[in-house]
Amino acid sequence: MNRCACVLLALGSAHCGHVTIPVAPPITAPFSERAAYFQQYRTRTRVRQIDSRAVIDLPMTAGLQLRNGLYVSRPSDLLPAIDPLSRTAELARASAQRERVANALRAGGYGSVAAGGLIVLLGYAVAGRADTAVTGVGVGVAVFGFALGFSSDFVDRPPREEVQECFEGYDAALQQRVGIAVRRQQREAAEPTDDAAR
User: Fold this and answer.
1) Distance CA 88, CA 98 (A)
2) 166-to-14, 93, 95, 96, 113 alpha-carbon distances in Å
3) Which candidate in 120, 163, 168, 179 could, as Cys together with 196 as Cys, close a disulfide (CB 3.0–4.6 Å)?
4) Gap between the Cα atoms of 21 and 81, Å rounded
């Protein structure tokens, strides 16, 4: 029983890392509000890493460090801040869908492991000793649960090109959402201008 609890805790703690970005103000909001949002939630740096799944070890954008200090590692977390019609939003929604499927697999896995453990315990309680058939069924159900839980990692892992494209298109999609224009030559130091007024 203690082993099952430890495994469930280990599986559950491995899937954290979401951040909450508030919904961007609408394009009809005052420019000062949109500009403040843009300055706070635009990209400070792109975090790059070597993707161990790639045949050639090329660095890829693994996350974004925003100006306000938030670190975003999941494309789906960007949805409240980006233009819903952008390619970035399309990729982020696909990532969110993968996460929902993976979460369903994890929940099914946790339930199956718990059911398998319960079957084994009931076998002991009813028979008063280890019943090999009941124990075999319980262990089989638990193993099926582990397989579901571990398969969720493969479902939840988006293609590296999609992650790269989503993170690299974030600032442009954020600009579209809040109606802000920034001169290309001075992206770091530039003050935003009201693109919605044009």
Assistant:
1) 15
2) 23, 10, 10, 12, 35
3) 179
4) 7
The greatest distance separating any two alpha carbons of the chain, rounded to the nearest whole angstrom, comes to: 80
Location of structure tokens 């099914």 = 108
The predicted model scores a pTM of: 0.69
Residue 68 and residue 39 in contact, taking contact as beta carbons nearer than 8 Å: no
For the CA atoms of 10, 12, 18, 22, the dihedral, rounded to the nearest 10 degrees, stands at: -140
Tens-digit pLDDT profile for residues 8-33: 434 444 445 788 899 999 989 999 99
The tokens describing 156, both together, are 């939840």
Q: Pick the closest to residue 78 from 99, 105, 58 (CA basis).
A: 99
Dihedral angle of Cα 96, 35, 176, 183, to the nearest 10 degrees: -130
Token pair, residue 18, equals: 């979401």
64 three-state secondary structure? strand
Handedness of CA 85, 177, 183, 64 (dihedral sign): negative
